[in-house]
């Protein structure tokens, strides 16, 4: 089978490496703050305008794909917004993709973890055989808020035999101190507010 080469990607921004400040500004310019969504008191960070802007999205994906030096075997994305990033980074880096899904969506044997997030509670699952033993996993999500989702996802990857070698988010809400839930694990956040 012939694997198509990535080649030039339409709409991609050229011009060499992007600085951390530039990518942070790019994300900042594309976030819409939505008060009281999905519950009163929550300030929701809507990143859909970033996903909708082809050149900006491509630039952000390139930064995430390269900031870990390609030293991962597989990308894991957290449903649902993490899928948007994980699929694009997996394609850009030539790595595979493992979906970490909300409960009841995966068809075979899973491991699962219940957790609380900023505005609710949920259960995440991953296929028990999703990772080769010792697979180097890059975990991706759009937002780190309280850290409940990320802590659950990290635990699932480890239970399923993967080794997390990187965890990146586009945006970290530092006032919610999600890092405190992650046991000192390094977090790459392209924008911190
Ligand atoms: O740090 P936390 O407080 O746990 O919150 C972060 C999580 O919240 C959002 O997901 P959500 O569960 O709203 O799902 P969605 O991606 O399906 O919208 C976001 O995409 C992160 O996964
Ligand atoms: N404030 C917020 N905005 C967007 N996604 C979130 N996930 C958890 N808290 C969030």
UniProtKB/TrEMBL annotation:
Its EC number is 2.4.2.7. It comes from the Bacteria. This is Adenine phosphoribosyltransferase. Residues 66-171 form the Phosphoribosyltransferase domain. Homodimer. Pathway: Purine metabolism; AMP biosynthesis via salvage pathway; AMP from adenine: step 1/1. Belongs to the purine/pyrimidine phosphoribosyltransferase family. GO terms for biological process: adenine salvage; AMP salvage; purine ribonucleoside salvage. GO terms for molecular function: adenine binding; adenine phosphoribosyltransferase activity; AMP binding. Keywords: Cytoplasm, Glycosyltransferase, Purine salvage, Transferase. It catalyses: AMP + diphosphate = 5-phospho-alpha-D-ribose 1-diphosphate + adenine. Pfam families: Pribosyltran. GO terms for cellular component: cytoplasm. Catalyzes a salvage reaction resulting in the formation of AMP, that is energically less costly than de novo synthesis. It is found in: Cytoplasm. InterPro entries: Ade_phspho_trans (IPR005764), PRTase-like (IPR029057), PRTase_dom (IPR000836), UPRTase/APRTase (IPR050054).
């Amino acid at each position: 089978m012939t694997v198509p080469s990535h080649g030039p990607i339409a709409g991609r921004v050229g011009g060499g490496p992007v600085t951390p400040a530039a990518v942070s500004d790019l994300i900042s310019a594309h976030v819409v703050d939505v008060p009281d969504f999905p519950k009163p008191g929550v300030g929701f960070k809507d990143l859909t305008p970033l996903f909708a802007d082809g050149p900006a999205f491509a630039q952000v994906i390139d930064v995430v794909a390269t900031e870990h030096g390609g030293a991962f075997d597989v990308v894991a994305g957290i449903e649902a917004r993490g899928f948007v990033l994980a699929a694009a980074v997996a394609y850009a880096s030539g790595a595979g993709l493992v979906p970490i899904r909300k409960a009841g969506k995966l068809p075979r044997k899973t491991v699962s973890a219940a957790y609380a997030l900023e505005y609710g509670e949920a259960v995440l699952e991953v296929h028990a055989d999703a990772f080769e033993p010792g697979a180097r996993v890059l975990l991706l999500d759009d937002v780190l808020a309280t850290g409940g989702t990320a802590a659950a996802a990290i635990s699932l990857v480890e239970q399923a035999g993967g080794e997390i070698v990187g965890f990146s988010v586009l945006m970290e809400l530092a006032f919610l101190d999600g890092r405190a839930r992650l046991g000192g694990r390094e977090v790459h956040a392209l924008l911190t507010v």
